[in-house]
Design goal:
single chain; 199 residues; alpha/beta; Rossmann fold; 7-stranded mixed β-sheet; 3-stranded mixed β-sheet; 33% strand; globular; binds glutamine; pyridoxal phosphate
């Protein structure tokens, strides 16, 4: 079974651990560089990206994590995790760190003009058996994608359709929280990516 870490500095850690185990992985909370070196893939949970960014630095995980992602380690970011994985975040603090695992530009708190949170059923490419019930909590959207980025899911907004799930190689990200719904299909997709990368 693949060993998948969940970055455990802040945010929705336990929910991801539970979903990964249901999806057939061995899941471990990660707080130290030595723990990071022992996993086959990593989930970056939702929470608060500014806080997580500075915790990554104080726990000395920023550089090792950048290096592992650049070397091809599979990663899955939900919400704040998506923001951290992006190459650029708009409406973020200027000193926020980016892990640069995805050639995307995200906008923080993008849906928040009328409601902070909402739920919607979204079609998710690569996830079979019907739409995924997506929970958005002060969520970002993806404003630009590079040529190597696959768009997996979008939702209609007032002005336009907004991209809310992407994949580039072994890096997956959702603007919403698949760990909160009891539906482990997105985690299964990620565990499959981890398995394929380690064989
Ligand atoms: N708004 C948060 C941020 O900017 C993300 C919210 C979430 O992860 N649910 O980091």
């Amino acid at each position: 079974e693949p060993v998948v870490g969940v970055l455990a500095l802040q945010g929705a850690v336990r929910e991801h651990v539970a979903m990964l185990e249901r999806a057939g992985a061995v899941a471990r909370p990660i707080r130290r560089p030595a723990e990071l070196s022992e996993v086959d893939g990593l989930v970056l949970p939702g929470g608060e990206s500014t806080a997580m960014s500075s915790l990554l630095e104080s726990f000395e995980l920023l550089q090792p994590l950048r290096e592992r992602i650049a070397a091809g380690m599979p990663a899955f970011g939900s919400c704040a995790g998506m923001i951290l994985l992006a190459r650029q975040a708009l409406d973020a603090r200027p000193d926020q760190h980016q892990l640069d695992g995805l050639d995307i530009v995200v906008r923080r708190n993008a849906f928040g003009r009328q409601v902070d949170s909402f739920e919607e059923d979204v079609d998710f490419a690569g996830v079979h058996g019907g739409p995924v019930h997506a929970v958005f909590i002060r969520a970002p959207w993806v404003e630009k994608v590079g040529a190597d980025v696959e768009v997996l899911a979008s939702v209609p907004d007032e002005q336009a359709t907004r991209i809310v799930a992407v994949r580039q190689g072994a890096v997956l990200a959702t603007a919403f929280h698949p760990e909160l719904t009891g539906d482990e299909r997105v985690h299964r997709l990620f565990v499959r990516i981890v398995r394929d990368a380690s064989t």
